[in-house]
Each structure stands twice: as structure tokens, then as C-alpha cells.
């Protein structure tokens, strides 16, 4: 009886949460301000191309429902004022919204939770006698794993992309120094360096510099805000160096070249460390294989000696 009451309570709470997510929220001044603030911090502007417009008409019903669920979670996060801390920087780096991430967590948790009853039903139909308590607890564990799994995947993907961005910052600094050596001013040199390639990191830097002109802010402030939003400390340090150069007239060209060289040495040291870790793991794997092979060869002889 207690187990049935607990299962009914969990199911009722789940239905209540689903209803609250899909229900239309109340509109108010605080809600509207939260949505605007969330949009400025989370949503990324994107121009729809003709190809994407054609693909958008071919989206199936599942994708449409997931998009609506993501929008609901976006509004819910804005209304509740959820900051998400480091995850918001990772989402901004991956060009994903908070609603998309929360919807992924919810869908993954529900899908893994329903996996346990399905497996239990298959085993029961096959003749296996498994108590109903087992799939209930296993389903809860699976739901917890499914709820945390998108966070782990996001952290891994964002870490890899952040390292790629740091490498691009070193190239960007060299290009800025070259443009300064060619006689261009600092704002023109920054925009020209960001316009060289179409790599996603250069596009983000170029967009930040272009928006700085529209908003009436300086390019170094825009770079600092971009570094703070993406969690890239190198951009924040670059913003401070450029601000110092603009205020005090420091020798920025040599400073940028030295900073780029420092970034390259740091990346090289990190790459060497990663390669060393991979070499050590390969060495351990080879030792384990050799040990297992020696045991395989010596086991018959040892077993015969023990029998004798």
C-alpha cells in the first residue's frame, strides 16, 4: 500500500509539473522584463536562409513539440530567474538556449525513466519474475542519470570548443599586430583581423565588434563582454590590455605579439601534456595485455604442478 501511494504521488507530481510547463504563464511587468533580459543574455540572433526555411517546413511533429517545450522552459527559466551559472556560459559558447538545454534534460530523464518499466514488462512477458519495486527504483536512478547526462555532455563539448576558441584568439592577436604594423588604427585593425576568416570563433568576434559600433561602445569593451559571456579569460585580458593602450598610449603592437606568443606556448604545453597522458595510458594498456598473456601461458603449467 505504501509503495502504491508513493508511486501515485510521484506520478501526480510529474503530471502537475508537465501541466505547469505547458500551461500559459501569467503576463506581468516582472515576467516581461525577465523575458527581455533572458533574451538578451541567452537567445542568439540568427538570419534564416532559404535552405533552412525549406527545411523548417519539413519538420516533423516531434521536432515541433520539442521546440514548443523548449520555448516553455525558456519562459519558465526567465520567470523564475534561473541563472544556471557556468552552464549559461557553455550554452552561449555552443549557441544554444537555456530552454533547449532544459528541454533536453527533461526529455532524456523521462525517456530513461520509462525504459525501466518497458524492460520489466518484456522480462515479465518472457516468464521472469521480477518484483515491481525493482523497476521503480531503477527508473528513478535512470531518470537521475538522464537529468544529469546533458550537463556532462554540454560541459565536455563546451570545453573542447573553448580550447578551440583560445587557439583562435592567439591567431587573432597576431593578425591585429600585423594590421597595426601596416599603419591602421586600433579599431580598424581589430575589425580587419576579425574579417580575415569565416571560422565560427572569428564570426563571433566580428559580430561583437560590429555590434559595438551599433551600440556606441568601444571594441575592447565588446571583446571583454564577449569573453565574460563565453567564459574565455583570454578575451577579458585582451580587453584590459586594449583599454590600457587606448587610455595610456602603451606600445600595443609589441604587447599583442608577446601575448600571442604566450598563448601559443601555453597551447603547446597543454598539447604536450595531453600527449604524455595518452602515452602513459597506452603504456599501461600494453602492460596489462602482456601480463594477461603471461598468465594465459603459465596457468596450465601452474595448474598441473598444483595437481601433482
Automatic annotation (TrEMBL):
GO terms for cellular component: plasma membrane. Residues 172-297 form the Type II secretion system protein GspF domain. The keyword Glycosyltransferase does not apply. It is found in: Cell membrane. It holds the Pfam family T2SSF. It is a multi-pass membrane protein. Its main location: membrane. Keywords: Cell membrane, Membrane, Transmembrane, Transmembrane helix. The keyword Magnesium does not apply. InterPro entries: T2SS_GspF_dom. This is Type II secretion system protein. The chain crosses the membrane at residues 106-128, 134-154, 283-302.
